[in-house]
Amino acid sequence: LTELTAKRIPQCLTYDIFSGVQIQRGDKDRILAEAGLVSPKSQDPNQSLINSLKQIKGSNNDLNLPVNPLEALPMMDKFLQRTDKPTVFIIDHADVICPASMQGLNRQGEKVPSIALTQWSRNEAMRSKGHLVFLITRHIVDLDPVLLDRSFEAIKIRVPKPSEQERKRFFQKNGDTKSATLMSNVTAGLSHKDLAKLYHQTASASVLDDIFSFKRKVLKEEYADLVEVMETQRGFEAIGGLEKVIAKLRKIASNIRTGNTTLVPQGILFSGPPGTGKTIVAEAFAKEAGVNFVKPLDIQIMWLGESERRMTKFLDAIKDLAPVVVFIDEFDQNQSSRGGFEGDSGVGRRLFKKMLEIMSDTSLRGKILWIFSTNRPDLIDSAIKRPGRCDLIIPFLPPDKRQLTLICEAAFKQYPEMKSKVKNWMPYARKCEGYSGAQMIEVIRRAWERANDQGRKYIANQDMGWAYQDYQPQLQGKSDVKRMTLLSLMECSSRDLRPENWKEVIKKMFPKDSTKIIKFLEGGKHATPS
Ligand code: ADP
Predict the structure, then answer these.
(1) Helices then strands (H, E): number in the chain?
(2) What is the average per-residue pLDDT within 317-336?
(3) How far does residue 416's CA lie from ligand 1's centre (Å)?
């Protein structure tokens, strides 16, 4: 801002709570005189503390201009009224001196700076001078809303994280033209400061793994209170079966990578019983598309109390992190899935509408992709399932024998340290028929533990036999799984996405009624279920 305004506005001062008022541009003596501050102030009892703080901060506030906002703002007030030259005044960390009132936390004194600021815009004499005041804050919702009142004539400007092009320019400018494209691809969500830090840290090595771990660390710290930034280590190779789903998602991932955003859905709903691979597929998809992968934290809390501020921060965060997959697990358990709390004061409803707006904002298509996961798609508000929000509803069915053998093989991609001498998984898949993918993987993990206990470096057939006998799957109502499977087939948005073996699955699950069910599912929307 200081540089940008330099050509047209002769005087520039800045203020932040740490360094106090500083003169960035203009005739210092004149400014001091106009501010009524000819002699350096020395009577401040906190002066020695302030001086040492300044030293630590490396501040150039050598003129001893006020640090305390209750002194700084009246001084600026005097100065802006007296001076006849247009002045830029930039207040950093404005939310510290003009905080949004938190219930019960607002003390009388806190309002003083906000009131001073709003008066500047109402003062005709001051306005005619052409002064320009900038307030800087990390989250606009942390700032006293009085300052955003329309009568104050403030304009809100959101400063986004650097775009892919800006990041590319940064890496090109710093010499590495060859890897600039790659580097800009994998650094979404990082600020200019982070990019510079990353560049210095990895300039010699420039290894992708280093970049990923750097990025994860920075994003985790920055957004720790809003989203969980997930690892995307496991790709599609670590998944067994689910061929149609993966083929579809591969196409979408490629469209995200190449910027073909019209071919990318706004949102996807994964529907199926627990342990069928919904989460791991979402992770692998984010990896394949090369985008960030996050889960909102405490989405429940977002619909209560301080939630409006939180929701705004959350939505800003995911825009910063774009391109990003936002994964919302067990969505049916979430109040938001049903349009907010019943009988609440309307906040839930309002926030729900806000989320729907973001979901259907087509300018975010291909940048923010929502993936919801559920085992009860019927409980989700149809406003979310409608095309333009969830364009795709993908069914995840329990694996059959063939798929279980593929899941066994995939286990070794998920845990590369595990080794095995087992050649044929079919006998175990047969024994484990009815298990979910998660349960099958657990049997293998136990076999590996057993092999280790026995001093073997490989899983042998006897370990599998033992693990199968030992494993006691958590009780899960068979009728629940049946119901969830049926629902996911019924709600699925495209018949083409049903797995090849869906009819066999139905026949196994509903031996008596399978003909009727299959007929109904083949009949699609026009048939009525009995
Ligand atoms: P869901 O989200 O459907 O409840 P998850 O994706 O969390 O299921 O599955 C839990 C674990 O089970 C995964 O981390 C993975 O190890 C394993 N798993 C489930 N399905 C598969 C599959 N099709 N291929 C490979 N692993 C699977």
Answers:
(1) 22, 10
(2) 80
(3) 16
